[in-house]
Amino acid sequence: MKKAVTAILSLFIMLVIALPCFADEGPGVILTADKTSVKAGETVKFTVSISDSINTKSGSIELSFPESFELVSAGWTLTGTTMANYDKSKNKGVFSFDSATFIGDEESGFVIFEFTLKAETVASTAKSVTASAQFKNGSIVVGESSATASVKIICATHSYGDFTRTKEPTCTEKGTETRTCSVCGHVDKKDIAALGHKFGDWSVTKEATETETGIREHTCSVCGKTETSEIPKLTPASSEPEPQSSEPEPQSSELVPQSSEPEPQSSEEPTSSDTTSSEPAPLPVNNDGLVTVLAIIAAVSLIYAIAVTVLLIVKMKK
Ligand SMILES: [Zn+2]
Ligand SMILES: [Zn+2]
Fold first, then answer.
1. What's the CA-to-centroid distance between 181 and ligand 1, angstroms?
2. DSSP SS3 for 111
3. Which ligand sits closest to the CA of 161?
4. Strands 103-105 and 58-64: what pairing?
5. pLDDT value at position 82?
6. Residues 153, 40: contact at Cβ < 8 Å?
7. Ligand 1 mean position, distance from CA 185 (Å)
8. What's the Cα-to-Cα distance from 72 to each of 119, 124, 131, 156, 188, rounded to whole Å?
9. Checking CA distances to 64, which of 110, 212, 271, 317 falls within 20 to 30 Å?
10. Ligand 1 centroid – CA 40 distance (Å)
11. Given a cut of 70, is residue 207 above it in pLDDT?
């Protein structure tokens, strides 16, 4: 007996769990708006999609939205179908087809309907726009679903009050100031820069010596944060003349490479003289030879002249 009751109970529980699954079968409606808030006077575009196009041959759609919106346009996006027009006065439309081309896919949904609302009056709370649809195959209802999107109608120009401090800034963290529009309730927010620490004077906690570094600290008077820093080692006073006397040494050593520089310069001179004037260089050598040769010629010609003169005198005497 108990076993039979348990079996019936478990069957009942299974049915309760399974029933919503059967009820959810068929296409569901997906409603998306192109913005979540709209300025008064501007428009919002809505897209109605269905999650599944299987078995849908006809159906109807009904929109509901508050008076703060006005319907600008509405229409079916399915192609290759015969569609009944959307009735603006009833906010209702029907469609039917034998074979339609659905735009979209199983994941993002198949787009069936699009409509545009113009925001008329500013409201302090978000307004709900609902699309309800029924899908049929012949006379059988294969799906019934609705979806809602929330849109806030804000002022084109807000009427803000004064800024009020909503979060005080601290030494390290930013604060916040807000102001609210008295018409639509839009909240304008701005950051206030962190104040930074207000440290007092440094106090030495450990004096520096010639061999060890010291320690000093200061504390923020607002938040109590303490910072420590190192005091450098003290420098001995007698060590100063030494680096001064060591300075001339590198200077004198610098003179050595400087004095070595003229050497390559002097070696350059003969090479430059070889290229520019090759004549002056052999001149002193040739000059000496030329002088000797000229002297010899002069001497020879002098002797020859004397000899010719003597011979002429001898002939004339004869
Ligand atoms: Zn406003
Ligand atoms: Zn501080």
1. 5
2. strand
3. 1
4. unpaired
5. 57
6. yes
7. 6
8. 10, 23, 16, 19, 30
9. 110
10. 10
11. yes
Strands (E) in the chain, as ranges, are 29-33, 37-39, 43-50, 58-64, 69-76, 82-87, 92-96, 103-105, 109-119, 127-137, 140-154, 164-167, 175-180, 187-192, 203-206, 214-219, 226-231
Residue type, 81: T
- 112 is written with which tokens? 């069936």
Q: What separation in Å is there between the alpha carbon of 226 and the centre of ligand 2?
A: 9
- What is the DSSP annotation of 239-282? TSHHHHHHTHHHHHHHHHHHHHSHHHHHHHHHHHHHHH-TTTTT
Cβ density class 2-29: b for 16+ within 10 Å, e for less? eeeeeeeeeeeeeeeeeeeeeeeebbbb
Confidence (pLDDT) at 287 = 52
Position 173 pLDDT exceeds 70: yes
Global model pTM greater than 0.85: no
Residue range 262-291, pLDDT digits in tens: 444 443 344 333 333 344 444 444 455 556
Whether 161 contacts 179, CB under 8 Å: yes
Distance from residue 200's CA to the centre of ligand 2 (Å):
11
What would the pLDDT profile of 217-256 be if each residue is shown by its tens digit?
A: 999 999 999 999 999 999 887 654 444 444 444 444 444 3
pLDDT at residue 301, as a whole number: 81
Backbone angles phi, psi at 284, to 5 degrees: -55, -35
Question: pLDDT digits over 48-75, tens only?
Answer: 888 876 667 778 889 999 999 999 888 8
Nearest CA to 128 among 71, 65, 73? 65
CA torsion, points 247, 249, 254, 260, in degrees to nearest 10? 170
Going from the Cα of 162 to the center of ligand 2, the distance in angstroms, rounded, reads 29
CA–CA dist 205, 221 (Å, integer) = 18
Task: With a cut of 70, say whether residue 83 has pLDDT above it.
Answer: no
Of 161, 159, 193, which is closest to residue 178 (Cα–Cα)?
161
3-state secondary structure of 182: coil
State the helix-helix crossing angle for 262-276 and 248-260, rounded to 10 degrees.
20
